[in-house]
Amino acid sequence: MRIGLAYDLKADYVEVAARQGGADDLLEEFDSPATVDGIEQALLSGGHTVVRLGGGKRLLRALLDDPVDLVFNLAEGFGTRSREAHVPAVCEMLGIAYTHSDPLTCAATLDKSVAKSIVAAAGIPTAPFQVLSLALEAETCKLEFPLFAKPLWEGSSMGIRDRSRCDDRAALHARVAAIVERYRQPALVEEFLPGVEVTVGILGTAEGARVLGTMELVPLGLPREDFVYSLDVKRDLNYHERLEYVLPPRQPAALVARMEQVALASYRALGCRDVGRVDLRVGRDGEPKFLEVNPLPGLKPGWSDLAILAGKAELAYEA
Questions:
Q1: Which residues, in sequence order, are CB contacts of 45 under 8 Å at separation 6+?
Q2: Structural domain boundaries of the chain?
Q3: Is a pLDDT exceeding 80 seen at residue 235?
Q4: Which residue, among 127, 166, 156, 133, has the nearest Cα to 289 in the 3D structure?
Q5: How do residues 40-93 score in pLDDT, each as one tens digit?
Q6: C-beta separation of 59 from 75 below 8 A
Q7: CATH second-level architecture of 2-99?
Q8: Which terminal CB of the chain, N or C, has fewer other CB atoms within 10 Å?
Q9: Rounded to two decimals, what is the model's pTM?
Q10: Beta sheet of 243-246, edge-to-edge order
């Protein structure tokens, strides 16, 4: 099969990010050459021909000039709230098969309030939340502290920092102000969940979806109720001193089964396809609750959460 790789590299957007200014993590979602190399080698090992399409207008021109049999989609898109829907929408318009979720799911899951609303409507537990468009709205927020604030439509932990947990109204005001200014979008504010945090890898579609593995994020050096799985942790070269990845989780079997049930239900309610990663955290009531889902999970060998999870589940990267 002739497979095209759709991707956006950090190097392609350095100048754009510099012109925009703002946050220091604007390129966080984009891939590194190591990710593209790893996927290309995995596909080549299966006997396929690989074409590097890139993203944006370059991808569009390539597909118009010389269509492939299948697009393996890694592209995050750029510039809009629906950016993750760009590539699957183009593929559908051109009648080209593609991997991962469709445009509707990619758009809905990137906007965290839309994803949480869909999940809640399906009867799946998630933390109470509000969307704040102005810092002044923090003064009338009716949620129970501590709270957690993050950009409404970003991925890859963009805007999620150690200070994202807000213990009082002053901290919430400051964090919402920073999000609105630096990311030019509203903030999603939700009640902070103090319990066990896991990420659940899922393969498949609809009723055929199955759990690949459930990986617990175990904080080191501070109480679990104070832990934030932030970009600061992920960027720390000594992250292994702050966090341990554990699979299977060191939790009662009944709790793990409930986590996987919630993750699968969320994945299906949002219409995810092929592969995804669902993040959950246990609330004050002992119930695992939906945080968010990534329908385009990072696939950098040995680095991305899903790749780490798969390795711990003894699944080869090429598989």
A1: 318
A2: 2-99, 129-191, 193-312
A3: no
A4: 127
A5: 999 999 999 999 999 999 999 999 999 999 999 999 998 889 999 999 999 999
A6: yes
A7: 3-Layer(aba) Sandwich (3.40)
A8: C
A9: 0.93
A10: 243-246, 210-219, 197-203, 275-282, 288-294
